[in-house]
Design goal:
The complex is a heterotrimer of chains A (599), B (368) and C (196). Chain A is α/β, with parallel strands linked by helices and 599 residues long. Chain A has 21 helices and 22 strands. Chain A folds into four domains: 44 residues, no CATH class; 82 residues, Alpha-Beta Plaits (2-Layer Sandwich), CATH 3.30.70; 208 residues, Fumarate Reductase Iron-sulfur Protein, Chain B, domain 2; 159 residues, FAD/NAD(P)-binding domain. Chain A has a five-stranded parallel β-sheet, sandwiched between helices. Chain A has a five-stranded parallel β-sheet with strand order 11-18-12-13-14. Chain A has a three-stranded antiparallel β-sheet with strand order 2-3-5. In chain A, strand 20 and strand 21 form a beta hairpin. In chain A, helix 8 packs antiparallel against helix 9 and helix 18 crosses helix 19. The N and C termini of chain A lie far apart (97 Å). Chain B is of the alpha+beta class. Chain B is 45% helix and 13% strand. In chain B, a hairpin with a 2-residue loop joins strand 2 and strand 3. In chain B, helix 3 runs antiparallel to helix 5 and helix 3 runs antiparallel to helix 12. Helices cover 31% and strands 22% of the residues of chain C. Chain C has a five-stranded mixed β-sheet. Chain C is elongated and about 80 Å long. Chain C has a single domain, classed as NADH:ubiquinone oxidoreductase Nqo5 subunit (Beta Polymerase, domain 2). Chain C is α+β, with helices and mostly antiparallel strands and 196 residues long. The chains are: A alpha/beta (599), B alpha+beta (368), C alpha+beta (196). Chains in contact: A-B, A-C, B-C. At the A-B interface, helix 3 and helix 4 of A face helix 5, strand 5 and helix 7 of B.
Chain lengths: 599, 368, 196
């Protein structure tokens, strides 16, 4: 600091007089798009100047005005939720095609509020919302600042600015790990495979949900999915249970074996793994203590109606009807021919997917609210339909599809060609100890025909029985559909393969090979297509591409048909059937027989 | 002579931000004065309680307009302290680069701001031109020029764009080469010195009484009391730098310290660019989607060294999706409120805005 | 700076040896928190000040409305032994009052004034604590209390801007969005069993 400064020291700055200025001229800020506005408001008088303008390009990460590709956007409204300034509103657009997994709404943004934080971009479930490098917009009308972003900005294609990347992503795309029994462990027993979430894990999984509600529309019973997931997140099992029971009286069962269409509609599934909605539902049921059930069910039924209803069949349809009728105040009796209630749940689905304990919990609940279960009573045999008509005000038919659809190929009527619904109840009875292992006739090698969940149930149950009986398994599965089009759920395919089931997908069965009155195998033709042009079932085969797979038993799981033998002929004459179902009005009421309702 | 009431601000070239100093003057000597904040009160602390953890990043930089990054950093550090988050190594270095650029930017701006009260606007033009270059760099990295919303709990929002190092180096080299020129124009300029030497004194005892931090304190107590040294955050413990100090705190000494810090910041950024490892830049606060992020129960006070001193966030979480309470310790709170009331009286009227400028009083952080 | 761990230990020993501390939390090597009784606050703060914690970094409060208590927080700092110390104490919410620490830390003057303005805590001993600082012509309860709802206040005080734009296109059909939203809010009500 000893240096002496003169008053002229700072005069060296005069050299800047001869340098190029660093300032940015006005004309190079505004873009051609704003030209009209600028001219109208005399900000820039010369039109020529604007046309000559060469606006600077913003940086690559510029958080400018939004663009939103409507084709990609699924209308989940997550941007609306996260917006810290409440600038985003979802607007209904019914002119957009109604598609599965999408909602007919798109965001509008109020740029008077928007703070350009790009959180909406970072959380966009479909990556459709992006920010452009455009950052100038001016208008004299305040209303013009609410805009609906589209793929183009002001009708022009613009450069992308801030887009979501791995670091800025705010969604959790990976599912919380669910404990499964290992394939070797589960192959030789009927213990339940999926162990279920612990409280901690369920909360973590629930935290992934963005509460968009797209799933609700794809659920057959329109469950309040986002609501009960939120209840799990907030650790309110009781609230979640109430929300579930409002739409679904068999949640313990559905939490294990429903088709979870919701998960394929899930907004998170667009970019990652869907929320484990089914398992979360199961978590609520499994973790709700019995006294909580008591508490909820002891709440008074709305009103008591002096009317009695008979429900025939205690499967999902029958029990569902019984529950809601009871809640509405009716007196309900359920008739079941088998010793245990539950129908397909009890006798169809194997225990490794749906243990008895889960079914009991649901059915106990229904019984507790006052539904009477009358088992070992077959309508038409132990009690007549006429008596039901006389004793009750209404009858609900909830009988299922237990009769196997026949194969219709040579050799298809052999005794070792077995229907799924003949085999599976035996399996369940074995698990309960009603049947012994020796009583079940399972051969050493088996072919299963069918590609649905039932086919896998058969194949995987057979695998287990073989393991128990012979110590090794040999199960082949063949279906018309190719592996990637199988109607079964992905877990079935994945877990089945893990358990050693051989797949012969994309083949149609042509003949059951029989030698010395014993089944030896199945002749297959390559399947070219399953449906004809009009969409009806009419498979075409490639005869050249033939193979024979070996097996001592053939199990058929290609769908079932109903058994209406219990309905007296006098009544059958009045009913109309379509594709195996009784034709009925919108609310299940059968024409000409006002006391009869069907599921 | 009769006592007269005068106002400095809210609209005044020597007043940064919307606050007003009420002064009762006798002649041109201030007899009594006090700061009147509240013209800008935006309810930030209440607002933060009502925003989600992730939503808060859009609110926080707005607490202090000119230096938003220290806010983001202190908020992020407080969250990380409660949630016990390990920030990726690369993110630490990126944060330091951002923070030092922010320091450069505000030092330049306040050095330019010296032109306001002293009447040398050339200084302001030069400083703002250079600040503009910094803002260009910020724009490329963060997407915005002023409210960056870039440092978030868990790291930074995006990795540095490819090739940004070149821009940084060319700016740093340019600024360094013109450093002497800056000094000559400003504090070496005899007419400026006549204004800033031996005025607006801040004696050591007053520092402790008010609780002044930052350059104001260091220029008076002659010790390197800089949070980056005393309790290093990010990776400042792995960077070599000096803390300019002085034992005679007049306006000149404070501006001098500020300018020396510019050189130090340049050196820190260069070291960071060399030492910066590759890797991730962000970890999420907790599992799940951002709107359901939760932070465990706890209290934390996190502070960083801003250009004006200790800038801290006191935070309470009740384990939910929103902060339970966020308190902001604005760095200029002591000198802005108590300092103006107690130690401005006695100085000359035209030095009042020098106090505001060289002590770094930023009204938005008083009015948060 | 060296032996920072021992700094927190030093503080712990210093405070715990002389006072009954309700809870001690070591947040990291630079920060420690003590929950103490209201009566001890002033003597602990003077002890800390004489031991080198000469700077009052922050003073404010937290509203624990469920416990019907306010929590006053003092944060002090020592530049030579770099440890931030939080001293926290709980006050009854109905008659919240604690003597000012003005004699110990003169810098608290405005912090206390602000805490009074935003929480309504009284600080006897501070001559100015009741003067308004930031909120001009405030006519409601102190705003940082948890039972103050800013949304309600602003709805009451300010007009709402409505845009006239109509982006809605229902294509002549019944709104599905409204039905969806109604279902959502109904589902929320179910949680408390409101329906049945």
């Amino acid at each position: 600091m000893n240096k002496q400064y003169s008053i002229f020291t700072s005069w060296r700055h005069f050299k800047h007089l001869f340098k190029k200025p660093k300032t940015i001229p006005f004309t190079s800020i505004f873009t051609k798009k704003n030209m009209n506005y600028l001219n109208n408001n005399s900000i820039i008088r010369s039109k020529k100047k604007v046309e000559m303008s060469n606006p600077r390009t913003a940086g690559d990460n510029q958080r400018g005005f939004h663009t939103n590709d409507w084709e990609v956007c699924i209308g989940c409204g997550t941007c609306e939720e996260i917006c810290p300034t409440e600038a985003i509103t979802m607007v209904e657009r019914l002119d957009i095609k109604d598609e599965e997994g999408k909602l007919q709404q798109r965001p509008t943004i109020d740029y008077g509020r928007c703070c350009f934080c790009a959180l909406c971009v970072d959380i966009c479930t479909s990556d459709s919302l992006k920010m452009s490098k455009e950052y100038i917009y001016s208008h004299e009308d305040p209303n013009a600042f609410e805009l609906m972003p589209e793929a183009l900005w002001q009708g022009h294609a613009v450069e992308e600015g801030w887009v979501k990347d791995k670091a800025s992503n705010l969604l959790d795309l990976e599912r919380v790990h669910m404990e499964h029994e290992s394939p070797d462990e589960r192959k030789s027993s009927f213990i339940e495979i999926v162990r279920g979430y612990s409280k901690e894990y369920a909360k973590l999984e629930a935290a992934r949900c963005v509460e968009c509600g797209i799933c609700t529309g794809s659920c057959p019973v329109q469950m309040h999915i986002p609501a009960y997931i939120k209840a799990i997140f907030e650790d309110d099992i009781e609230g979640g249970l109430r929300q579930i029971y409002e739409t679904n009286p068999l949640p313990g069962v559905c939490g294990r074996v429903c088709t979870h269409n919701c998960e394929s509609a899930c907004a998170i599934a667009v970019k990652g793994e869907a929320i484990a909605i089914r398992w979360l539902k199961r978590y609520i049921i499994d973790s709700a203590p019995n006294d909580m059930y008591e508490k909820i069910l002891m709440e008074p039924v709305s009103e008591v109606v002096d009317a009695r209803v008979a429900v025939v069949g205690s499967g999902p349809a029958g029990l569902g009807a019984a529950y809601y009728l009871r809640v509405m105040g009716y007196e309900v009796d359920v008739y079941e021919e088998k010793p245990l209630t539950g129908g397909v749940m009890r006798y169809g689905i194997p225990a490794y997917r749906l243990p008895d304990s889960a079914i009991n919990k649901d059915i106990d609940f229904i019984e507790k609210i006052g539904v009477k279960m009358i088992v070992n009573t077959r309508v038409g045999k132990d009690i007549t339909m006429d008596k039901l008509e006389k004793d009750y005000d209404a009858v609900f038919l909830g009988t299922g599809f237990f009769k196997p659809r026949s194969l219709g190929i040579p050799g298809g009527d052999h005794k070792d060609v077995i229907g799924a619904m003949t085999f599976l109840p035996q399996v369940r009875d074995y698990e309960r100890g009603v049947l012994k292992l020796e009583d079940i006739d399972v051969a050493k090698s088996i072919v299963v025909i069918g590609g649905g969940d039932v086919a896998f149930d058969v194949a995987r149950s057979a695998t287990r029985l073989q393991m128990l009986k012979y110590g090794k398994s040999d199960v082949k599965l063949t279906s018309l559909e190719n592996e990637d089009q199988l109607p079964s759920s992905d877990d079935e395919l994945f877990e089945g393969s893990e358990e050693g089931i051989e797949l012969f997908c994309g083949n149609g069965p042509q003949e059951v090979m029989i030698k010395n009155n014993k089944v030896t195998g199945l002749r297959l033709w390559k399947c070219l297509c399953i449906f004809n042009e009009t969409g009806s079932f009419n498979p075409e085969y490639d005869k050249e591409c033939e193979q024979i797979i070996e097996g001592q038993q053939i199990y058929i799981a290609i769908g079932q048909s109903p058994d209406y033998e219990y309905i007296p002929e006098s009544l059958q004459g009045k009913l109309q059937f379509s594709r195996g179902k009784i034709k009925a009005g919108e609310f299940g009421q059968v024409e000409y027989t006002p006391w009869l309702f069907v599921g | 002579m009769k006592e007269m009431k005068l106002f400095l601000g809210p609209q005044h070239p020597g007043m940064s931000g919307n606050a007003s100093v009420h002064m009762y003057v006798d002649g041109d000597i201030i007899k009594r004065s006090y700061l009147l904040p509240g013209m800008l009160h935006r309810g930030f602390e209440k607002g933060m309680e009502r925003h989600l953890w992730v939503n808060n990043i859009s609110l926080i930089p707005r607490v202090c307009v000119v230096e938003p990054d220290t806010n983001e950093m202190a908020f992020a550090m407080a969250v990380e302290m409660i949630a016990k988050l390990e920030v990726p190594e690369r993110a630490h270095y990126i944060r330091m680069i951002i923070l030092e650029f922010a320091r450069l930017s505000i030092h330049l701006m306040s050095y330019g701001g010296l032109g306001g009260p002293t009447g040398l606007y050339t200084l302001m033009y030069h400083a703002h031109t250079d600040r503009n270059t910094i803002l260009n760099i910020f724009e490329k990295i963060t997407g915005h020029r002023v409210y960056h919303q870039y440092i978030v709990p868990g790291g930074v929002r995006k990795d540095l764009p490819v090739g940004i190092e070149k821009d940084m180096h060319s700016f740093l080299d340019d600024l360094e080469s013109r450093y002497e020129e800056y000094r000559d124009l400003g504090i070496n300029n005899l007419s400026i010195q006549a204004r800033i030497r031996d005025t607006i004194m801040l004696p050591k005892e007053v520092v402790w009484e008010l609780g002044v931090t930052g350059i104001g304190m260091r220029s008076a107590v002659n010790k390197p009391y800089d949070l980056r040294k005393v309790k290093p955050y990010a990776r400042y413990d792995q960077i070599e730098f000096d803390v300019p100090v002085s034992d005679y705190s007049d306006a000149y000494a404070r501006v001098d310290c500020k300018l020396q810090e510019v050189l130090q910041s340049i050196s820190i950024i260069r070291q960071c660019l060399i030492k910066m490892p590759k890797g991730d830049v962000r970890v999420p606060i907790s599992k799940g989607q951002a709107m359901r992020w939760t932070v465990p129960k706890g209290y934390a006070y996190a502070c960083v060294e801003s250009s004006r001193g200790e800038f801290g966030y006191f935070m309470v979480s009740d384990g939910g999706t929103h902060p339970y309470r966020v308190g902001v310790r604005g760095a200029s709170y002591p000198q802005g409120l108590l300092g103006v009331e107690k130690y401005l009286p006695g100085t000359r009227l035209d030095d009042a805005s020098l106090w505001i400028d060289t002590m770094g009083v930023c009204s938005p952080e008083i009015d948060r | 700076m060296t032996n920072s761990m021992s700094n927190t230990e030093f503080v712990t020993n210093l405070v715990e040896n002389q006072y009954k501390v309700l809870k001690t939390e070591v947040l990291d090597q630079y920060q420690i928190a003590f929950e103490v009784k209201k009566e001890d606050v002033h003597s602990i703060l003077s002890l800390l000040k004489t031991s080198g914690w000469i700077q009052l970094s922050y003073l404010s409060a937290v509203d624990w409305i469920k416990d019907n208590e306010f929590e006053v927080v003092y944060i002090v700092f020592n530049w030579d032994k770099a440890v931030h110390i939080q001293i926290r104490t709980r006050l009854d919410r109905e008659s919240a009052s604690i003597n000012s620490v003005l004699p110990i830390y003169p810098g608290c003057k405005y912090y206390e004034r602000e805490a009074h303005e935003f929480f309504g805590i009284k600080f006897p001993g501070n001559p100015d604590y009741e003067k308004q600082l930031i909120l001009e012509n405030w006519d409601d309860i102190p705003p940082l209390r948890k039972d103050f709802d800013p949304r309600q206040y602003s709805d009451k005080k300010f007009s709402h801007m409505e845009y006239k734009n109509d982006f809605v296109n229902k294509d002549g059909k019944v709104s599905k969005q409204e039905a969806r939203e109604k279902r959502f809010s109904d589902a929320d009500k179910l949680r408390t069993g409101g329906k049945k």
